[in-house]
Amino acid sequence: MGTLFVAARPTASEADYGFNPGEQLPSIEVEGVRWLSDLQYDSMSYVVVWSKDDAVSRAVASWVSRSANNPGVGAYSICLDADQTDTRLIASLDNTSHGAELLGMKSGSTDKQDLKVLKDNAEGRLFIVKKGVIQRALKTDEAWSLISSGTDLLKEPAVFGASAR
């Protein structure tokens, strides 16, 4: 008689944390404030993680911020290598919508482990999050290619319909 080992875990009401579809983005702490922990309250959220020298990611962040301007839709723009003041300045130069949540991670009080995890797993990516769970994770160069071709990138006509092009 053979023995069958099955790895099981209890069914959770919430998805695991990570950077892949089906998971929740981990929250990050900057200046004592936990960010991204409340994405579950947005019907749809778009999170772009970029660095100040990454022009493509900055363009995607700007495009997303201007296109996701419906109630219940959040646009989050996270710069890994600038402080809050410089992040706001860069976002202003990039014509990022004033409604976007901007976060500059280069702060003396940023949790260093959070910053390392973001750099390793999220830099140069666009996360499409529905009620807190990642639906798609795209490299920003792939997202920009779709945006510039006129493709309905996010397949959400109410948010990114013909008027956003």
Give structural notes.
With 165 residues, the chain is α/β, with parallel strands linked by helices. The chain is built from four helices and seven strands. Strands 5-4-3-6-7 form a five-stranded mixed β-sheet. The protein has a two-stranded antiparallel ribbon with strand order 1-2. Helix 2 links the parallel strand 4 and strand 5. The longest helix has 13 residues.
Helix and strand sequence? EEEHEHEHEEH
Q: Give the quaternary arrangement of the chains.
A: single chain
Helix residue percentage: 25-40%
Count of helices?
Answer: 4
The CA-CA distance between the termini, in Å, is 64 Å
What does the radius of gyration come to? 17 Å
Largest sheet: 5 strands, mixed
Mean pLDDT equals: 83
Low-confidence stretches: 6-11, 156-165
The largest beta-sheet arranges its strands as: 5-4-3-6-7
Shape: globular
Please give the number of β-strands.
7
Q: Approximately how much beta-strand content do the residues carry?
A: 15-25%
